[in-house]
Amino acid sequence: MIFLILSSWCESNFAPLLLAWVSVDCCQPSSQSSVIVILSYARIRLSLDGILRLPYYTTGKRGITLYLFMALVRRIGSSLLSRKEYSRFLDNRKWLEGALEGFSIENVLGISQLSSRPSVLMYGSCVSGTAFSNADADYAVLFLTQGNTEESSMANMLNYTHSKFIEVKREHHQKVLLSILEHIRVSFCSTVVKCEQIYSARVPFIRLFKSGSNNTEGSHLDVSLSFDGPRNSLLLRLYMEGDPRLRCGVLCAKKWCRSQGILDARRGWISAYALTVMYIFYMQVTKRTARIIDESEVNNILYCMSKQMLEGVNECFPFVGDVCSGSDVDIQNVLSDLHGFFHFFGGSMCFDFDTDVVDIRKNDKLVSKESWLEGINHFDEKTRWNLLGYETIMIRDPYEDHNLGRSVDFFRGERIREVFRLASETKIEDVLNELAKQGRLSSV
Questions:
Q1: pLDDT tens digits, residue range 175-211?
Q2: What pLDDT score does 180 carry?
Q3: Can you name the residues that pair with 2 across neighbouring β-strands?
Q4: Residues of the chain with CATH 3.30.460.10
Q5: Using N-to-C axis directions, what is the helix angle for 60-78 and 244-259, rounded to 10°?
Q6: pLDDT-based confidence at residue 433 (cuts at 50, 70, 90)
Q7: CA angle (32, 34, 36) in 5-degree steps
Q8: Where in the chain is the domain with CATH 1.10.1410.10?
Q9: Which residue of 148, 219, 240, 247 has the smallest Cβ count within 10 Å?
Q10: Is 243-437 in CATH node 1.10.10.350?
């Protein structure tokens, strides 16, 4: 029989916990009580419901490891993007789509009538289901076709890869975004209090600062013409929805990598998106998940969704709820997955950063760096650099031609390998203890 002793429970559930697992063997002639372990002053945000779900049937180090992991999962769950925050993103999407009523891309580019009115889709971690509190949403303005986009007069302005959408070539993004900005300013000059124009980014965008209404705070919207953003986000969402165990592991891996300082693409590290792709790849290769999604199917889903939203049938992606509870996934499996993930990329017998490629595509999959380089050997050095960067970590984007790890130089690459190696050689309970020491999660 196992008893749970809890003390020092204070407001906000952030107070230090004094926890003791006491095992009593009632079958012995004289019952002996022994304290297996005492975990003191662990700063864990936990609910009473979470405690009641702890694995009472487990004792010893294994029991403490599971307890720590459950505590981490609960804490991560409490730090995810809230339903209220997500509703605000949906309101902004609806406002932006309404503000674009009457906007015509044909007038801007001087081409014949091709599309219906603009559709606005959100993208980013808030859509994929891997967003923490205070995360932002990005917004893509898409145009559904209703004519022939393959006229020769439009060849220098549009891409024809996905016939159901009009894709404006990057060199014309600034012109279209400027027109969108002016269109919104005319009708909503009092609502949009400020704007920024960022055209030098890989994906050009405008940032609108919108005033609040009815005692609500103002907000900002990053607006682009990115088609790949919504596609990538939806693809990851399908993976997360189809396998709760996968999503739980991704969130824990993000927390760990953030704590080690290796998750920041703007500073030359890997992005949270790249890490998610790495985790999916690892789960697929090791057969820990059966989810293998045909990336080409996402185009049809996006088209149907955009069309339904324009017709007022759907609002957009529904909210992805809290991180999976113990009843949704086998916690021991996720724990094994997490440690296996560190070993897969940190060990010497699994993934080789010098020769292997992370690729979750189902079609035209690459298995080696050599085959990737052979496919682009006709490009000049500048184009190759723009696509692959330092070539230290090769992570293939599911849709675009570039390397998601292109900003990681040699020294940061070595640091990332070392972090994974050390984690793979560390007892998982020590890893969880380290995570438990971290402060409240920041936006990732």
A1: 999 999 999 998 887 788 889 999 999 999 999 998 8
A2: 96
A3: 23
A4: 83-226
A5: 90
A6: confident
A7: 155
A8: 243-437
A9: 148
A10: no
- Predicted TM-score (pTM) of the model is 0.82
How far does CA 389 lie from the centroid of its chain? Answer: 22
Q: Which residue has the tokens 């804490």?
A: 75
Structure tokens at 310: 């324009």
Please determine, looking at this structure, whether the domain spanning 83-226 carries the CATH number 3.60.10.10.
Answer: no
Contact status, residue 275 vs residue 254, Cβ threshold 8 Å? yes
- Report residue 40 as tokens: 């003191």
Reading the block at residue 225, the tokens are 């013409």
- Which residue, among 64, 400, 389, has the nearest Cα to 230 in the 3D structure? 400
